[in-house]
Structures are given as C-alpha cells and as structure tokens.
Design a protein that fits this description.
With about 180 residues, the protein is of the alpha+beta class. The chain is built from four helices and six strands, in the order αββββαββαα. Helix 1 runs antiparallel to helix 3, helix 1 packs parallel to helix 4 and helix 3 packs antiparallel against helix 4.
Amino acid sequence: MIDDVKKECEDKMKKALEAMKRDFQAMRTGRASPQLVEPLKVDYYGTPTPLQQLATVSVPEARQILIKPFDVSQIKAIEKAILASELGLTPNNDGKMIRLSLPPLTEERRRDMVKLVKKRVEEGHIAIRNIRHQGNKDLEELESEKLITEDQHKRGKELLDELTKKYAAEADALGKKKEQEVMEV
C-alpha cells in the first residue's frame, strides 16, 4: 500500500521535472538549438503540425538554425509560424530553406531570463510539494480505513519527505545549470 503511494508520487514528481526540462529547452540562450523551433505549430493544409514533422532542423553554426522543409511548397507556412511565435526571430528564406540567426543576448535580457528560470524552478518546487501533499492525504485515508497502521503511515510520510527533498534538489540543479547557460557569453 505504502509502496503504491510512493511509486505514484515518484512518477508524478519525475513528470514535473520533465515538464521543467522541456520549458528550459524552449528558453532561448545565446546558443542555437533545434528545440527552440521544433515544437512550433505550422499550418499544414489547415492542420496545426509540429515543425519537426515538416522539416529537418539543424544547427550549422553556434548562432544559426537551418530549416529544410521536406515539401518546399510549405516554406511560406513555416516562415509564417516562426514570425507568429514568441521567438522574436526573423527568418531568411532562399526558396529552399530558412535560416534563423540568433542575435547575442543583452545583459538585461540575460538577467530577465535568469529571473524566469528561478520562477520555473519555484513552480517545480510547488508542483513537487503538491504531489507530496496529495500522497500524505492518500496515506491518511489508508490509515483511517485501517488498511495501514499508524507506524506505516509515519514511515510512508518519511519516504515522501525524502522523495520531495530528492526531486527538489534535482529541480535546483537543473535551474542552476540553465542559469549558467543563460549567463554564458
């Protein structure tokens, strides 16, 4: 019983960290990365389709992303999706492929991004604590239904606290790594 609650909470905590990692991948640092544009939705014959299904995305240089559509007729739709996104990048279209040049980040923009990273880490902590809170409620229910003893309930709470500390520390480590990446010139 306790192991089931622990496993369920651990799975949810892992998912919370994965969501945080995805958020960090989409954050623009000074370096080009395919993850910046791959999730963009392109209007492909009336259907919003992820860019990665319509084109190959490569990084030929540190500050450049190259997008080669499988179907050249979709180049305008891809361009439109990039312009409509929050990336703030202007696509250069040569008729066969699109080049995106990433300008260097200003010091002010880097500081704003660090604040955003810290906010995302705090959101991760909150999600992890909420998962622990739900796990504790589940343990209380099990005890009130006489499915576990008071000692088992206490042990379960200790296990959940250990899990919470572990995943909160992982969230902090991810945040520190992303902050260093953002501040790197």
